[in-house]
Structures are given as C-alpha cells and as structure tokens.
Design goal:
Rossmann fold; 9 strands; about 35% strand; single chain; seven-stranded mixed β-sheet; alpha/beta; about 200 residues; two-stranded antiparallel ribbon
Length: about 200
C-alpha cells in the first residue's frame, strides 16, 4: 500500500472517530460567510474539496442550493449524505477529477494538505479555469518554512501530509489575486489560511 492509499485507508477505517473530532472542532461558518461575501451572488455554485462528514456542508447549503461536496473517503461521504440530505456528494480523488466549469467558490478546508506540490499546482491551475470571473478558491494548508512531506501515525491511523511555505503558495497561485494569506496557530500547528480570487477579464 502506498502513502496515498494508506491515508485513504485511515480515513475509511476511522471515519466515525474522525467525524466526531471534526464536529467537536466546530464548523468554519465565519470563514464560509467571509468567502461568500467576496462573491456577492445569489445561490453561487460551490464545490468543496474534502468535505469529510459534511460538517461545513451543513452550513454551506444554508447559503446556496448549488453545492457539490467531494471526498476521497467513501465512508466519510456516507456520513456526509446522512448529515446533509439536501447536499450533493461524490466520492472523488481531486488529483484526477475534472472540475465543473462555472464555479463561484471552491473550498478546500484542510483537505489539500494530503496533496504533493505538482498535483497541487495542477489543482490550483484547474480551479482558475473552472471558476467564473471574481470566483474564489479558499484553502487551509499546513505550514512549514519550506515544502516538506511528513508521514504520521496517531490514534486514527497513518496519514501523509505535505506542508507549504507562504512563498510556495504565492508561486502556486499564479493567475489569481491573493486576497488573504494569513498564518495562524491552531493547537500547536501553524496553518496558512489563503483566499485566491480570479481576476475579471
């Protein structure tokens, strides 16, 4: 089993425990509202990468009826469908998923942390093409002074993460305007909170 398969296996086997953890942390409602305000559109077309058990989808679908949630874990998608019956969900690997065009918002809350740099470069470039003018891509990424790969084992299983610097993200964001690039500390881990907006043509 390679590192990616091991990570997926961990999410599938520990789906309920991880869902309980996600729920205990609370939703990203303030971040969701901030992102919607940048688009300022009724019923924007929203795609969430790594929707997990639907914790944030539950809040997003209250603000739009045009939502798709993706996750690579089949077990987490099962939980999301139960939690958010009016959401649309699909099991998908974002590294080989064809993004629909006409998107207004793409959320990736702590999901692309499992994606290596060259794959992330392609995902961000594909997002630029998929978004409408003034559309927004919002990411939360684990931070390090320089790009690195880390494999960790905890009570949930084994997962591989990729950490990025601010400079890495600026380079990968070519074609976007960087609206926000903020460094936060969350329970001893530094995170980059990034909002990228597509320029009007």
């Amino acid at each position: 089993m390679d590192k990616k398969e091991q990570t997926i296996d961990t999410y599938d086997k520990s789906a309920q425990m991880l869902a309980d953890k996600f729920d205990s942390l609370g939703s990203r409602l303030d971040d969701i509202k901030e992102t919607f305000s940048l688009v300022n559109k009724t019923n924007p077309f929203v795609l969430e990468i790594g929707c997990g058990n639907g914790r944030d989808a539950k809040e997003i679908v209250e603000l739009t009826n045009n939502y798709i949630g993706l996750d690579i874990s089949e077990k987490l998608i099962e939980l999301a469908r139960r939690k958010v019956p009016k959401g649309t969900f699909a099991v998908a690997d974002i590294e080989n998923y064809n993004l629909p065009h006409g998107l207004d918002i793409i959320f990736a809350f702590a999901s692309l942390i499992h994606v290596p740099k060259e794959s992330l470069r392609k995902i961000i470039a594909d997002s630029l093409l998929a978004l409408n003018n003034n559309g927004v891509l919002r990411l939360s990424m684990k931070y390090a002074d320089s790009y690195k790969e880390i494999t960790k084992e905890d009570e949930f299983g084994i997962r591989t993460y990729y950490l990025y610097s601010e400079k890495n993200m600026q380079e990968l964001a070519a074609g976007f305007v960087i609206v926000k690039n903020k460094l936060n500390d969350l329970r001893g881990q530094a995170w980059l909170e990034i909002i990228l907006q597509k320029l009007s043509i």
